[in-house]
Design brief:
CATH superfamily of the largest domain: Phosphoglycerate kinase, N-terminal domain
Strand order of the largest sheet: 5-6-4-1-7-8
Strand content: 15-25%
Distance between the termini: 13 Å
Bound molecules: adenosine-5'-diphosphate, magnesium ion
Radius of gyration: 23 Å
CATH class of the largest domain: Alpha Beta
Length: about 400
């Protein structure tokens, strides 16, 4: 386990100023936040610091203002949602650094919470500008990063600043890093990885990293078609990246050498048109797909075989649905395997970690998101971690 400091390593913080990087990048509709998950995730850290008597200054980005102020991307728009989740009043501060922030701190009492303006209004943020980081750090006594989802970017508020102040992982960051470490850093073996989704091209680096790490690589979704085609299977009209046949073969070879068993489906669910419950729906062996059919889910036999694989494993990491799960009945395999994983997790025989926008949606759809050991909502950062990359925001906390 990589060493990073947590809130447990903080001494007395009463009256001290905590600069806390959080993810407040919530989806908005008609001026209202439509999903509070990200705020809920960082609330424990904010409240813990406030209750310990720190003056808490929140640092966050919101949308893509590209280094300029934008009235529609001000964090003042998110203040109400933050207050609703925290159950506390906050102070919106229209700057990120400088005398206005200093004056606000003069008014704030221990335990008060301030929301600094959108870090991306300043061009130096995305450039990881040391001068901007210095200006922000000047108003704080210590730095806490609780935004794993922003940790794959080396920005002033995620990377540079962590070198200027004593830096700590917040509770959400700590939980995420521990879960990810249990899944791939230092997992109990055997480890199974499910990689699904639409295209091989978006997850090449993930596949290449995983074949050297896990004992079972389960490939589903549209990307399974590319692997099947590379092995000479006629996949008809299926979503398939034929130009990646060589790449797919190379991944299979690497897996072979590394002792990683790759599981491709041997039966599939096909249809002539992509629609809900289409009349042409049928299940067949992968070698029986007609020229005018497309593979939209893996079949029941394959799903059962995969469930048996999971039963022999101690750890599961999952990114990407096994089929076009938004359209019934092509959610069947994803839902079934997710439920198996959830049941094994509940029994205590499997540590299960999942991430990815559509994967998280699929697990909620299957009703099992809460049963997984950990579900990451970090998106890009989760994928980069699956690729085995070092995330700059995390590295800055550990050095
Ligand atoms: P995540 O967001 O979890 O990383 P992806 O974005 O890579 O996942 O992939 C999800 C998408 O893949 C879904 O929209 C799903 O419909 C699509 N998909 C899965 N299997 C197939 C398939 N056989 N044919 C076409 N699309 C598929
Ligand atoms: Mg997606």
């Amino acid at each position: 386990m990589m060493a990073f400091r947590t809130l447990d390593d903080l001494g007395d913080v009463r009256g001290k100023v905590a600069l806390v990087r959080v993810d407040l990048n919530v989806p908005m509709q008609d001026g209202r936040a439509t999903d509070l998950t990200r705020i809920e995730a960082v609330a424990p850290t904010i409240l813990e610091l406030a209750d310990a008597g720190a003056k808490v200054l929140l640092l966050a980005h919101f949308g893509r203002p590209k280094g300029e102020r934008s009235s529609t991307l001000s964090l003042s728009l998110v203040q109400g949602a933050v207050e609703a989740v925290l159950g506390r009043e906050t102070m919106y501060i229209s700057e990120l650094a400088g005398p206005i922030v200093q004056q606000s701190l003069g008014i704030m009492r221990p335990g008060d919470i301030g929301i600094l303006e959108n870090t991306r209004f300043w061009a130096g943020e995305e450039k990881n500008d040391p001068e901007l980081a210095k200006a922000i750090a000047a108003n704080g006594d210590f730095y806490v990063n609780d935004a794993f989802s922003a940790a794959h970017r080396a920005h002033a508020s995620t990377e540079a600043i962590a070198h200027l102040l004593p830096a700590y992982a917040g509770r959400a960051m700590e939980k995420e890093l521990k879960a990810l470490d249990a899944a791939l850093g230092n997992p109990e073996k055997p480890v199974a990885a499910v990689v699904g989704g639409a295209k091989v091209s978006t997850k090449l680096a993930v596949l290449e990293h995983l074949v050297g790490k896990v004992q079972h690589l389960i490939i589903g979704g549209g990307m399974a078609n590319t692997f099947l085609a590379a092995r000479g299977v006629d996949v008809g009209k299926s979503l398939c990246e034929h130009d990646l046949a060589k790449t797919a073969e190379a991944i299979l070879d690497t897996a072979d050498q590394a002792g990683c068993t790759v599981h491709l489906p041997y039966d599939v669910v096909v249809a002539k048109e992509f629609a809900a419950n289409p009349p042409s729906l049928r299940t067949c062996n992968v070698h029986e797909v007609a020229a005018d059919e497309m593979i939209l889910d893996i079949g029941p036999q394959a799903t059962e075989a995969l469930a048996d694989v999971l039963k022999t494993c101690r750890t599961l990491v999952w990114n990407g649905p096994l089929g076009a799960f938004e359209t019934p009945p092509f959610d069947t395999a994803t839902v079934a395997l997710a439920r198996t994983a959830a049941a094994l997790t509940r029994e205590g025989s499997l540590v299960s970690v999942a991430g990815g926008g559509d994967t998280v949606a699929a697990l909620h759809h299957a009703g099992v998101a809460a049963d997984f050991s950990y579900v990451s909502t970090a998106g890009g950062a989760f994928l980069e971690w699956m690729e085995g990359k070092e995330l700059p925001g995390v590295a800055a906390l550990t050095s």
